[in-house]
């Protein structure tokens, strides 16, 4: 979900039946019996009424934007068409009170908006996939901590659900995979789960699938590393080019993959001062002009100061050394991402 992105292409055409069937099969949540909700104030009372009549409580976590929510989170995903300024807030608080009073012990209401502002997002934009979730406008009640012990109730709007089912955003409803599960995945599923281990790396995952069965998570990681190491120089450069600039325009517009978004955050790149941002932009450009690929560094292993310093130092390297250094960082990023997906059952001494 870059910030976790919901990106798609074209209009979605899943019918209600298809949605229900595939939701029931592959996800563990129910679809609200609400087919025409536009998320705007106009039909708030209609939705509230439907919610009141619907028993919806499933355990799932949805990752959207920069955040993911644990299984005990109560999440209502809302969007707003915002015809009238301020309508979102009154709409959301109405909804909140209706539901809270009636059926839930507690509720986290998360409101999504476009990068352009609170009231600019419409469901149409969401369905055509032209926007990205970039920002959390705020929580009703403004106290995030107070939401940590919530019941497992999830209400996912139809459009978000469609996006999830189409694989355009991630759900964390599933546990980490056990190795046996990894080994039994058909290649389509394997690519779905591991295609992001190398950024936009479906091809890498598709190739690594041939190396099953993996006898340990280390062997799985090694298969990815081996593939990367064996690439010709143009292939290595090509892989490096799949990565977004750190704190670059994709980050700025909220268009990073979910993985990159979290990595940026871990390094503190979401809190750069304007001076630091300008320095990074300038160094990134110089680096790309010199080498023809972006500066890549494992953000989870570095803080922003180390990243800026790394840029300054590595810009002086020879191109061939930089390909190897960049690829080494790609491998570190990949290793960490793989360990996020798969349970490590290696006995610890
Ligand atoms: N340019 C670059 O290093 N990008 C990345 N690094 C990282 O840890 N995640 C990225 O997307």
From TrEMBL:
Mind listing the UniProt keywords for this protein, alphabetically? Decarboxylase, Lyase, Purine metabolism
Q: Which Pfam families match?
A: OHCU_decarbox
Q: So, what pathway does this thing act in?
A: Purine metabolism; urate degradation; (S)-allantoin from urate: step 3/3
Q: Which parts of the chain are coiled coil? A: none
Q: Where is the Oxo-4-hydroxy-4-carboxy-5-ureidoimidazoline decarboxylase domain?
A: 183-339
Q: Which reaction does it catalyse?
A: 5-hydroxy-2-oxo-4-ureido-2,5-dihydro-1H-imidazole-5-carboxylate + H(+) = (S)-allantoin + CO2
The EC designation for this entry is: 4.1.1.97
List the PANTHER family hit by this protein, alphabetically.
2-OXO-4-HYDROXY-4-CARBOXY-5-UREIDOIMIDAZOLINE DECARBOXYLASE-RELATED
| Similarity comment text for this entry | Belongs to the OHCU decarboxylase family.
Stored NCBIfam families:
UHCUDC
Task: Describe its function.
Answer: Catalyzes the stereoselective decarboxylation of 2-oxo-4-hydroxy-4-carboxy-5-ureidoimidazoline (OHCU) to (S)-allantoin.
Q: What is this protein called?
A: 2-oxo-4-hydroxy-4-carboxy-5-ureidoimidazoline decarboxylase
Say which species the protein is native to. Answer: Mya arenaria (Soft-shell clam)
Q: What is the lineage of its organism?
A: Eukaryota, Metazoa, Spiralia, Lophotrochozoa, Mollusca
